[in-house]
Design goal:
There is one protein chain. The chain starts with 5 loop residues before the first helix and ends in a 6-residue tail after the last helix. The longest helix is centred in the last third of the chain and has 30 residues, at 247-276. Helix 13 (307-314) packs parallel to helix 15 (335-349). The chain is built from 16 helices and eight strands. The chain has 369 residues and is an alpha+beta fold.
Length: 369
């Protein structure tokens, strides 16, 4: 049994944020994710590769062992596809074969340029069906690098956790990203764009950080979070007793509890609105009685402070300028979602690591130490 490291925890938290976002906004992409790999499957993968896989990459694969893609597109930041494990083995073997090609005299050419090291583990590719380009994790340095069919190898991100955290921030606060990679939707799926080809570009809709759906996503975590505290024990008991080999029972359980979660959320919103004399989101800076604040749904639990408070908390003038632009461009019905989004960023920037990540997104750069 392995012990969780800081990198593993960062990967798990970032990927959980990404998956929850996919479930709420882009169900086709969420549905394209493959189930997580078991420890036996990961052990077999390491045996096939002939090298140990870094723990942070195994942490990702335990949650989602690749994706099938939607309409030929992947969902990862940069428009990459998360490679299934069999493709990981195939690409690694192929690239190692190029590196180890014999010279004319039948010996390995020691002077050949380094095209691939055994410790380089691919995990993203150009698309689910095209693996001539992609991203790999350098097991020696922890860096995420890009490979191309032309032998180019370029560092892209400082680490796998940094890559996934940047992806999570870019999804949750899309207007803070000044770089070329913007989240958007194409036929309901997540596509990073704008797409280069005109036909796809015309149908691509950029995601602008709209408020999340009122109802919880149909995932066990989101449903449980929306339930009243005194009903979660019963939910847990029924969930643990489920026969996962019976799809109809699983669907019936999910639908029943989702309907209860929707009802509970609507009741809670009505109670809070009655206590405030209006919607909490349209009154930035309003204070709530402790009993009501403790029962707020997760989406509005951290109510936004005033406009001036947010500007002060953002700390950096370049970030404040971006906030001012967004605020001036918004129309009144969008103010609550805008304030929530930027208050999230301000809270994130209170952490030095989060500060660096946000500045990297705003300036269109990769985060680095």
């Amino acid at each position: 049994m392995t012990t969780d490291t800081a990198a593993d925890v960062r990967v798990t938290r970032a990927w959980s944020r990404i998956v929850e976002w996919l479930a709420e906004y882009t169900p086709p992409s969420y549905g394209a994710l493959r189930p997580g790999a078991s420890d036996d499957e990961l052990a077999a993968l390491e045996e096939a590769l002939g090298v140990s896989v870094p723990e942070e990459l195994k942490a990702l694969w335990r949650l989602s062992a690749g994706e099938d893609g939607v309409d030929g597109s992947g969902l990862m930041l940069g428009d990459w596809a998360l490679m299934p494990l069999d493709a990981v083995v195939e690409v690694h073997r192929m690239q190692r074969g190029f590196q180890e090609a014999d010279g004319e005299d039948g010996t390995v050419d020691e002077d050949a340029p380094v095209l691939w090291k055994p410790s380089w583990i691919p995990f993203c590719s150009f698309s689910p069906d095209d693996t001539v380009y992609g991203l790999y994790l350098d097991g020696e340095t922890g860096e995420v690098c890009q490979w191309t069919r032309y032998g180019e190898r370029e560092r892209e991100y400082e680490s796998l956790p940094a890559y996934l955290e940047l992806m999570a921030v870019s999804l949750e606060a899309p207007l803070a990203g000044a770089g070329p990679e913007k989240p958007g939707m194409l036929r309901g799926a997540l596509v990073w764009g704008p797409p280069a080809d005109e036909e796809r570009g015309d149908r691509w809709v950029r995601h602008l950080g709209q408020a999340p759906p009122r109802h919880p996503a149909k995932t066990p975590g989101a449903i449980r979070e929306a339930l009243p505290g005194d009903e979660r024990a019963e939910f847990d008991q029924q969930r643990d007793a489920l026969d996962l080999a019976d799809p109809e029972a699983v669907v019936a359980f999910r639908d029943h509890w989702w309907e209860r979660a929707v009802q509970a959320q609507e009741e809670l919103e009505d109670d809070v609105a009655a206590a405030l004399g209006g919607n909490v989101l349209v009154h930035p800076g309003r204070t709530l009685a402790p009993e009501h604040e403790a029962t707020l749904p997760p989406a509005i639990r951290h109510r936004p402070p005033s406009l001036d408070d947010i500007r002060t908390a953002l700390r950096h003038e370049s970030v404040r300028t971006r906030f001012d632009r967004d605020f001036m461009a918004a129309i009144p019905p969008h103010y609550p979602a805008l304030l929530l989004r930027w208050w999230d960023l301000a809270r994130l920037m209170a952490d030095p690591r989060g500060d660096r990540a946000v500045r990297a997104v705003v300036n269109g750069r990769r985060a680095s130490d």
